[in-house]
């Protein structure tokens, strides 16, 4: 079998990563969550550079970039790689709403995108990869053999994210999650550098009315058609 590159893009909380992880496991491919990379950089900046109210100095952010080391370490029991920021496992901390609130502003900075895109391209250079994010099919791997663009209604997405956070024991309001999903969608699709959009050759699919198993079957079939 030949190995291919699979790019999965879409709005926040469309369930991209759940499907992508399952697909990667099934195919024996590497899975990379690029959102985790932007989140980890944001966490670093929140700790080192941000001042009160989440304001930040763009130049200071750029000066700190060389001190950020990101890596994914495969966790056998989870079946995918967890993200490490300068050797600290931050997989859990990067999912907090506080990080979600700032990540889209940080991710709009071209110097950061340039650094992370380079690392992502390096991770995918031997193919056999499933990568999810916002610009994978348009910028990171424009030549990917399979591109999927996932959508679902805003309310559905906010509900999913809310359930996930609740499940983890976060004390959080649905309205706050909904607002964050809307804010990120807006910032991610209107930024100047690599805005979120569907690649012309991406297969679009709305999973509002599909359960995980149905989504997985569909994606697996699309992949097998290309392999
Ligand atoms: O995928 P996730 O929701 O964890 O991504 C968090 C944020 O990281 C997005 O809202 C977006 O601002 C940014 N991101 C990006 N490009 C990617 C992946 C994520 O700008 N490829």
From TrEMBL:
The reply to whether Transmembrane helix figures as a keyword in the UniProt entry is no
* InterPro entries referenced in this protein's UniProt entry, alphabetically: Cytidylate_kin, Cytidylate_kinase_dom, P-loop_NTPase
Catalytic reaction list: CMP + ATP = CDP + ADP; dCMP + ATP = dCDP + ADP
Residues that, per the record, bind ATP: 10-18
What are the recorded Gene Ontology BP terms? nucleobase-containing small molecule interconversion; pyrimidine nucleotide metabolic process
Q: Look up the EC number in the record and give it.
A: 2.7.4.25
Keyword ATP-binding applies: yes
The main location is cytoplasm
SUPFAM superfamilies documented for this protein = P-loop containing nucleoside triphosphate hydrolases
In which compartments does the protein localize? Cytoplasm
Gene Ontology CC: cytosol
Question: Broadest EC class?
Answer: transferase
Task: Recite the UniProt keywords alphabetically.
Answer: ATP-binding, Cytoplasm, Kinase, Nucleotide-binding, Transferase
Give residue ranges for domain Cytidylate kinase.
6-224
For this protein, the record's Gene3D superfamilies field holds: P-loop containing nucleotide triphosphate hydrolases
- Report the GO molecular function annotations: ATP binding; CMP kinase activity; dCMP kinase activity
Report the superkingdom from the record. Answer: Bacteria
- What family classification does the UniProt entry report for this protein? Belongs to the cytidylate kinase family. Type 1 subfamily.
What's this protein's name? Cytidylate kinase
């Amino acid at each position: 079998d030949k190995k291919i590159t699979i790019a999965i893009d879409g709005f926040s909380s469309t369930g991209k990563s759940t499907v992508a992880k399952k697909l990667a496991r099934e195919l024996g491919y590497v899975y990379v969550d690029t959102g985790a990379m932007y989140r980890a950089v944001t966490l670093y900046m929140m700790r080192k550079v941000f001042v009160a109210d989440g304001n930040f100095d763009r130049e200071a952010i750029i000066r700190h970039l060389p001190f950020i080391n990101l890596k994914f370490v495969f966790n056998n029991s989870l079946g995918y790689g967890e993200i490490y920021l300068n050797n600290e496992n931050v997989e859990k901390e990067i999912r907090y709403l506080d990080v979600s609130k700032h990540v889209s502003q940080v991710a709009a900075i071209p110097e950061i995108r340039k650094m992370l895109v380079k690392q992502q391209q390096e991770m995918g250079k031997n193919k056999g990869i499933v990568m999810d994010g916002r610009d994978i099919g348009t910028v990171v791997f424009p030549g990917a053999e399979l591109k999927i663009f996932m959508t679902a209604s805003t309310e559905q997405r906010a509900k999913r994210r809310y359930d996930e956070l609740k499940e983890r024991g976060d004390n959080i309001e649905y309205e706050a999650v909904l607002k964050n999903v809307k804010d990120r969608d807006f910032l991610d699709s209107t930024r100047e550098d690599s805005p979120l959009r569907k690649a012309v050759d991406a297969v679009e699919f709305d999973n509002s009315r599909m359960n995980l198993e149905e989504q997985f079957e569909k994606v697996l079939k699309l992949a097998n058609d290309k392999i």
